[in-house]
Amino acid sequence: MFKLNLKIALRNLWKNRGITAINVGGLAIALAAFILVMLYFTYETSFDKSNPNYKNIYVVGRIYPEFKTNYTAPPLVKAIKQNFPEVENAGITKGGFFELTLKNGKNTVFAKNFIQADYNAAKILDLKPVGGLQKPSGEAERLSYLSVESMKTLFPDKKDNKPEMVGMGASNSGITSRFDGSIVSDPHSNTTFDGISIGNEIGQGEDYGMNNYRTYIQVKQGTDVKNLEEKITNLYRAELLKGETDSKSIEEIKSVYTFLDPLSNLHLKPKAGNDAPYKILVALSILGVLILVIACINFTNLSIAQASKRAKEVGVKKVMGAFRVQLITQFLTEIFIQCLVATVLALVFAELLLPAFNNLFQIPLSIWYIGNDLFWQLPLILLLITIIAGIYPAMVLSGFKSALVLKGNFSTSKQSSWLRNGLLVFQFSIAVVFIIGLLIINSQLKYMRTQDLGFTANQVVTIKNATLFNNPSKFGSLNFESLRERMLKIPGIKSATVATNVPNGSRGGINGYVANGVQASIDFVDVEFDYFETLNIKLKEGRFFSNVFKTDTANSVVINESAVAKYGLKNPIGQTIRGCNIDYKIVGVAKDFKAQGFENAVQPTIYAIKNPCGNYKTEIMLKIEENKMADALAALKAQWPQINPKDGEDFRYDFLDELYSRLFKKQEQLQSVFFAAALLTIFIAVLGLFAFAKYITNGRIKEIAVRKILGASDIQIFKLINSSFFVMVLIANIISWPIAYILTKKWLETFAYRIDLPMLPFLLSGMATILLTVVTVSLQARKAVKANPVDALKYE
């Protein structure tokens, strides 16, 4: 019986090969998109899952009235371990401030992410040095490892895992460090690094003011995490209150909370961070599902549209004794064959599209590897789409009444027309939402690229640097003035400065400051002379830092407009703001500029040359004339060993405008996804509309012939055929506009600086879908309109 059903199915598919090709092609394209989405979803949601304690690991963070952070101080981890038996293990890690240059002869590695970790953190994070994780033998000992890739670059011929001495910095620096072997740095983990130093304890001697560490805890199975979170908050407050007598500080401490963020959150939606990756993943997943649903709808619609051609076949089979179950099995067999072919084609399409997809999201996805969940997911999806796309057409086809269809009455029946029309409306509704979404994303990105940032990133070069410029009296620090003088002698360099961070979306540190009787935690950026001039930041009132004023290096600060508003300062120039045990004098107010991009509002910020509680000044920035850029960079590279001996021959740089443009990366990815989704949905919808219009037109050939004989013009007939489709697309627009409005409005609300929701995309989407419908239907109807009426009526 199966063999007979298979033979009939193949003959029917070949007989209607045009519609079969449309069905299979549309489904294959949609399924290929869905496969890519599944691969991406699996990749993004599997970070750190190789850790055996994945579900019991949390990061400890802090919540203040003005901000939230997952950085804490070293003493907190000791207090947690001592007070809470439900915490099985606790440890801390600390990231580096700059790239380390590592050398072995001519082989060089730039370690962009070199971290420190205590032994407990290494165990919690399941770090795996080659040869196993070893416990340092004493309090002072550190075991240092390089990633497998970095070690291979430095020692390409190395076969063992013995320790190696590696040069640090310039070739002539004479500084070396011992590395005890290599360690697997899983790129599919939130803890990635080029190198790591592991000690029994790190952060010794640092107090609760040194919040530069990440605290990881591993709790026992079944722990009440919410209750533990409250207990850690009470413990943290108690620790901060020790010895505190100032009433304002006590009240501020009482408003501080801690939180526990699961390890599973860190990659996509950290509590103290940006959840844009999570939103992109959700949006992409919904798009993938909707595209597949549209393809299944298309499949269903076309199968129902062909019902009239199969009606007599069903009637004859029923008269010959065929049961309905047998007919359903036959039709599902046909649909399964089409879905199977579509699945094979989808794998081919997905493989062809994968390089472009990987390049867009900067990920290493692959289809053909052992353990890929796709190989058990695809059969389930194949079965699912066969049922979704095929069960209703099979029920409709197998349910025809033999007496009616053999009399020829079925062709005039309105059976299932409501469903066909409803599915077509649904298809175009989704397509319209995608078109509107794409147009609004384009408008927001255009706004972000053309809006005044408040500073000028063009022609500003940031130089990679391993020298500290905070305090020349400290070990490892230099006076920046000597470097500035040497760099300014190079033709084309207009200004030079150094700061703790550059305006590329990275956020500076946060400290508490008091001004005008108001205590608040605000951002700080430690700078040198010419910082504002190099970035072309506008002055609102007062002045910027100048060598003319000696106090500028001691207790002068510049604040931004947001800080003025935060403290309620009416005449800020000359007023005092206190922080880090220094009474600073406000000498200038800078206009707000979008250092953190468009998603976050400009933060109240204080700029100082001297800040004992600040971070390291390492980010060198140069303003270079455009027509002298190449010569200036060549001169800097040649002279860098003399200008900054610590970096020596390793001169590296980035353009600030390119660094800043990376802030748009996630939104550009979303734009690309919506563009592809809009094209796919329109293509699939139009494909279905084309075939659907063909069947509708063929079913009205005699009606068209009679109308032509009675004097109807071609235009009138085109209008008649298009009218029903026009109404359906119009309904689709009316349904989709409110949905698109709500979704795009919520997306725009994620930006602090955004466009007003425009009406033009809604109008354009309506015009585009109506035009596509008219053109598609008219092309299909043209054959029937131009046909000779005699051919259609000669047997009547």
Descriptive account of the structure:
With 796 residues, this protein is α+β, with helices and mostly antiparallel strands. It is built from 23 helices and 25 strands. Strands 1, 2, 3, 6, 7, 8, 11, 12, 13 and 14 form a 10-stranded mixed beta sheet that branches. The protein has a 6-stranded mixed beta barrel with strand order 17-18-23-20-22-21. Strand 1 and strand 2 (68-69) form a beta hairpin. The longest helix has 38 residues, at 324-361. The chain starts with a helix and ends with a helix.
Report the biggest beta sheet as strand number plus sense, adding barrel if it closes.
10 strands, mixed
The helix count comes to 23
Question: How helical, in percent, are the residues?
Answer: 40-55%
Distance between the termini: 40 Å
β-sheet strand percentage: 15-25%
Instruction: Tell me the structural class.
Output: alpha+beta
Q: What general form does the structure show?
A: elongated
Instruction: Give the mean pLDDT.
Output: 83
